[in-house]
Specification:
The complex is a heterodimer of chains A (about 280) and B (about 350). Chain A is built from 10 helices and 12 strands. Chain A has about 280 residues and is an alpha/beta fold. Chain B has about 350 residues and is mostly helical. In chain B, about 75% of the residues lie in helices and about 0% in strands. Classes of the chains: A alpha/beta (about 280), B mainly alpha (about 350). Chains A and B meet through helix 2, strand 6, helix 3, helix 4 and helix 6 of A and helix 2, helix 10 and helix 11 of B. Chain A: InterPro entries: AAA+_ATPase, ABC_transporter-like_ATP-bd, ABC_transporter-like_CS, P-loop_NTPase, Siderophore_ABC-ATPase. Chain A: GO terms for molecular function: ATP binding.
Chain lengths: ~280, ~350
């Protein structure tokens, strides 16, 4: 898998998204840096998952357009789009009794059709996706019997088997412990480094996002409030604006990227108690 | 060290790559071929048992002579006008119900969502009875009415259960089934046939009304519809992943749902027009097929299971009590009811709802 010399661009131009009722995302424009990994962060219900669904055409825009290399995704045939753009929705559920190799094999669906059946190239793509995610050893097991971490890696393998130039992941680390969270994000970074895949990930964990992001997008109430390199964007002021949380931002001791340390009331209470105890009588 | 390199590979996997995956993927296919082969042989055995055995036993050489057009006093009428059309109708109706049930169950991701539970088969039955009793319809007219009735019920329960999810649809459907069953009883009570056999046909299904015309019509319809189950199965494999994942993989979810619903409704309505809503065949076939096929759904296996249930049920219904020939629906109903109860209890316990 060689590095892509012409990475794919995905951008939203002035889009408004929503379900029944008031729009959740309004007049938003965003350009995902081509061949880079973008992380989208924000408080609960800020519209970040809605934005991702809009970028993947799971939700049609009420106005505005989503462009893939300049072409409106709403004018592309469904299967042609799925060969270019893959999405892993939040907490997907596997059909009962399906084996790992079968599930990962379904990632090849957009490459098949009436006259193009399963081929050796599909086998190779599935093998590559399984080995990249460290799930080759699970290929013959059923998905039901896997642990949460294994299951999530299998879903990512399915998205990788799709071999798209753009990959969108909605909360890919939900239900995973810290070690598995790091592992999953490492796999995505390596994929990006090897293939030049353009990636966007919605993530709750600010510190992991700051560590892994080439480009950080912070959202609030359906709007983008800041975007750029994590070092430039992630400040105590931004954390206050987006999450309403007081914090100190220090350099991560491992990578030097911003590390958000929340203050919280307990620390303040303990601090106050300590100073009282230490005060001279 | 790269995460990519520390992936734990089984011995030889790294070297073989695609070939190794191909072997993994072939195993379930091989199993399915075996299951289908054995089931096919069992269905063939049941078919011939239905034709040859029972109150009037026919030897194989005699049967072959009958097929060749020879006249054997007594046997000719019983086999050629009675047992053979009944067995063929059971084979076709069972396969059709089996595929219809498996389609709905896989699409709605719930074993309770089969057309006989959610009222679609009863819609077909009620419309067929109305066409016969009120409008004096016969033959193709009855089939058309059954298809119309099933489609109307499908549209109606989808509309009534909109925004309530799969469980809501099933509950609305169970209500519709009870209402339509009452409608069938009402229509039959208004008719002056007063014939208990007719009542049984339209309430629980029977092969007794089989004749060559019904068999030929159903066979012709299935010849058109069953090949569509191939591409249908591909769409089902996508939809089984959930709407968002399926859409992300390039499936046109609304279109696939519409076409599969249409196919499932027709496959439930056509055999109903010919043999009544044979109780619980659609409901039982899919889950049994999955169990036999190592948990993986397969429309072909479901078709064979459906045919097997109807033929085995008919064999039991005709021969269980000497000199009394029960309708097949009585036997399949007796088999299906405990399974329905078990499913309701076990799904509530695991808190997944009906």
């Amino acid at each position: 898998m060689a590095l892509n010399s012409h990475p794919t661009r995905l951008s939203a131009r002035n889009i408004t998204l929503g379900y029944a009722g008031a729009p959740i995302v309004q007049g938003l424009s965003l350009e995902l840096p081509a061949g880079k990994v973008s992380y989208i962060v924000g408080a609960n219900a800020c519209g970040k998952s809605t934005l991702l669904r809009g970028l993947a055409r799971l939700l049609s825009a009420r106005s505005g357009a989503v462009l893939l290399n300049g072409a409106d995704i709403h004018r592309m045939p469904t299967r042609a789009l799925a060969r270019e753009l893959g999405i892993l929705p939040q907490a997907p559920t596997a059909p009962e009794g399906i084996t790992v190799s079968e599930l990962v094999g379904r990632g090849r669906s957009p490459h098949q059709g009436w006259f193009r059946q399963w081929t050796g190239a599909d086998d190779d793509a599935v093998a590559a996706a399984l080995s990249v995610t460290g799930t080759l050893g699970l290929a013959g097991r059923t998905v039901d019997e896997l642990s949460g971490g294994q299951r999530q890696r299998v879903w990512i393998a399915m998205a990788l088997a799709q071999e798209t130039e753009v990959l969108l992941l909605d909360e890919p680390t939900t239900y995973l412990d810290l070690a598995h969270q790091v592992e999953v994000l490492d796999v995505v970074s390596e994929l990006n480094a090897r293939r030049g895949t353009t990636v966007a990930i919605v993530l709750h964990d600010l510190n992991l996002a700051a560590r892994y992001a080439d480009h950080l997008v912070a959202m609030k109430a359906g709007r983008v409030v800041a975007e750029g390199k994590p070092e430039a964007v992630l400040t105590a002021a931004l954390v206050r604006e987006v999450f309403g949380l007081e914090s100190v931002v220090v350099p991560d001791p491992v990578t030097g990227t911003p590390l958000v340390v929340p203050l919280g009331r307990r620390a303040a209470l303990l601090g106050a108690g300590a100073s009282l105890a230490g005060a001279p009588a | 060290m790269s995460v990519l390199d520390k992936a734990q590979l089984p011995a030889g996997a790294a070297v073989l790559g695609g070939a190794w995956v191909r072997e993994r993927r072939k195993a379930p296919r091989r199993r399915r071929a075996w299951v289908a082969g054995i089931l096919g042989a069992a269905v063939a055995g049941l078919f011939f048992a239905n034709v040859l055995l029972g109150s009037y036993t026919v030897t194989v050489p005699d049967f072959l002579r009958l097929l060749g057009g020879a006249e054997i006093p007594g046997a000719s009428f019983i086999v050629m006008e009675n047992k053979l059309p009944q067995a063929l109708l059971g084979l076709l109706a069972g396969a059709s119900f089996g595929v219809a049930g498996a389609i709905f169950q896989a699409m709605l991701r719930n074993p309770l969502a089969s057309p006989d539970i959610i009222g679609i088969s009863y819609g077909a039955s009620a419309a067929a009875v109305a066409a016969i009793v009120v409008f004096g319809a016969r033959g193709a007219g009855v089939s058309l009415a059954a298809m119309g009735g099933a489609l109307v019920v499908a549209v109606l329960i989808t509309w009534l259960a909109r925004g309530r999810g799969g469980t809501g649809l099933i509950l609305v459907g169970i209500g519709a089934a009870a209402f339509l069953q009452a409608a069938v009883t009402f229509l039959l009570s208004r008719a002056d046939t007063g014939n208990a056999r007719d009542v049984m046909v339209w309430l629980s299904g029977s092969l007794a009304p089989a004749n060559w015309q019904r068999v030929a019509f159903l066979a012709a319809a299935l010849l058109v519809l069953l090949p569509l189950a191939g591409p249908g199965a591909r769409q089902l494999r996508g939809l089984a992943l959930g709407a968002d994942t399926a859409a992300g993989l390039g499936f046109n979810v609304p279109r696939a749902r519409l076409l599969l619903t249409l196919l499932g409704v027709l496959l439930a309505a056509l055999p109903t027009a010919a043999a009544g809503p044979i109780a619980f065949v659609a409901f039982l076939s899919g889950p049994i097929a999955r169990r036999l096929n190592n948990g993986a759904p397969s429309l072909a296996v479901a078709a064979l299971v459906g045919a097997g249930i109807v033929l085995a049920g008919n064999l039991a219904a005709v021969n269980a009590i000497p000199r009394v020939s029960l309708p097949v629906g009585v036997v399949t109903g007796a088999l299906g009811a405990p399974f329905l109860l078990w499913l309701l209890i076990s799904s509530n316990r695991s808190n997944q709802g009906g």
